[in-house]
Design goal:
The radius of gyration is 27 Å and the shape is globular. With 411 residues, the protein is α/β, with parallel strands linked by helices. Helix 10 crosses helix 11. The chain folds into two domains: 223 residues, no CATH class; 147 residues, Nutrient germinant receptor protein C, domain 3 (GMP Synthetase, Chain A, domain 3).
Length: 411
């Protein structure tokens, strides 16, 4: 074979490779053929066992809302089905595009659905490669379909971004806590603690808590999602935690109880609390509180029951001030510190006995301290900590250092 023929063959091969590499593929999945699901909702079905809702992002921020008040950036489709996968398949047969779950930011279970047990759904979701483990898990006080249809991302243009940012309020309020799917699944399979989720609801005038028996100190922080006296365009409210025992919802925590959980579990960044004013009757003081050391939890077994001690160290800054404020000299500061310690100690005891006696749910992970008392894993399993947690008793010590106002004075 001469050199000219070899060059001709080589040129032909190069042109052939380039031709195929530049050609498009009709069956390729791209953005024009996909419908991106930003949130999933799970309700108990009427005819089938599952009522599944998909909140789908609308490209360009336009969509037909129907009668719902949701944002134009998304639409919600709801399907009665027997399983999650059959629901996805039915959705694909209805839409003009194939559904894609890779941008799902929120998984919403209604209280009714979560109370019946979610283990099958949980394992199914974790088995989906498309669903990212960092999407948040929320239990809604209303049904999930209603929750998704009435969510309005007022300060965000995209629903996906809205669901991603909303749970981060825990970083500066302490009234809730971001819980991802991977964290929820890990806690569910743990022998040291139980799982919990964000507690959410749709806040309307009909859901507001108007209990007149609550005093002014308790009013702001004793609410759960959808109960606070807030009026505005944004309907979603995340406040409190949904508590599970095994795979079933067993109870809920309000705002101050959620703060107590974060103090005990060393997940609190900062929060604002109200306490009775020790200097003026029927008045309250607002304080910004943050931990200055990690809470030291210790557990001893006494006659087969856990004796749990928690040593807590906090810093508080005074937010409520006036021109006659008494909080600026040493004696008043010490009086205020004692009042804070007394108030938080009472709240922490109430919280700890609620999760142990009422819920029998160790969401703080005390089990990792108990396991040190057992020589083998088999002994630990036979002890069945998650069942015996209800027999625990507690001792709490709170030490608060008060700083005066940010601007007026540094103590």
């Amino acid at each position: 074979m001469n050199k000219k023929l070899k060059n001709t063959i080589l040129l032909f091969l190069i042109l052939t490779i380039c031709l195929f590499s530049l050609s498009g593929c009709y069956s390729e999945r791209n953005i024009d053929h996909l419908a991106y699901v930003v949130a999933l909702g799970f309700d108990v079905g009427t005819d089938n066992k599952l009522r599944l809702s998909f909140q789908i992002s609308v490209p360009g921020g336009s969509g037909d809302n129907g009668s719902s008040s949701q944002s134009d950036s998304s639409v919600v489709n709801t399907i009665e089905c027997s399983t999650f996968d059959s629901g996805v398949n039915l959705l694909n047969s209805y839409l003009s595009k194939e559904s894609n779950l890779s941008h799902c930011k929120m998984i919403v279970f209604s209280e009714e659905f979560a109370s019946n047990g979610i283990s099958e759904t949980l394992f199914t979701l974790m088995n989906k490669v498309e669903i990212r483990p960092d999407c948040n898990v929320l239990v809604s006080r209303c049904n999930a379909e209603y929750f998704l249809k009435n969510s309005e991302p007022v300060l965000e243009k995209l629903s996906a971004r809205y669901y991603e940012i909303a749970p981060t309020s825990s970083e500066y309020t302490g009234f809730t806590q971001s819980v991802t799917l991977s964290e929820f699944f890990s806690d569910y399979n743990d022998t040291f603690q139980t799982c919990y989720a964000i507690l959410g609801g749709i806040n309307t005038s009909d859901t507001h808590n108007s209990d007149s028996s609550e005093n002014a100190v308790e009013k702001d922080s004793s609410n759960k999602a959808d109960e606070t006296l807030i009026q505005g365009k944004t309907n979603i409210e995340n406040m409190g935690l949904a508590i599970f025992s095994g795979d079933k919802l067993v109870g809920e925590l309000n705002g101050i109880q959620t703060i107590c959980h974060q103090i005990i579990s060393n997940t609190l960044n900062s929060c604002i609390i109200n306490i009775p004013n020790p200097f003026e009757e029927n008045q309250t003081i607002s304080l910004k509180v943050r931990p200055i050391k990690n809470t030291k939890n210790k557990v001893k077994l006494v006659n087969g029951s856990a004796y749990i001690t928690s040593n807590i160290n906090l810093e508080a800054r005074i937010l409520t001030m006036n021109e006659n404020s008494k909080y600026l000299n040493t004696n008043e500061i010490q009086t205020l510190e004692k009042s804070i310690n007394s108030y938080l100690t009472t709240q922490l005891y109430d919280y700890l006995y609620k999760i142990s006696k009422d819920f029998n749910s160790d969401i703080d992970g005390f089990g990792k301290y108990v396991v040190q008392n057992f020589q083998t894993y088999e002994d630990w399993k036979n002890f069945n900590w998650l069942e015996n947690f209800k027999n625990s008793f507690f001792e709490v010590s709170v030490n608060t250092t008060v700083k005066s106002g940010y601007i007026l004075m540094e103590s």
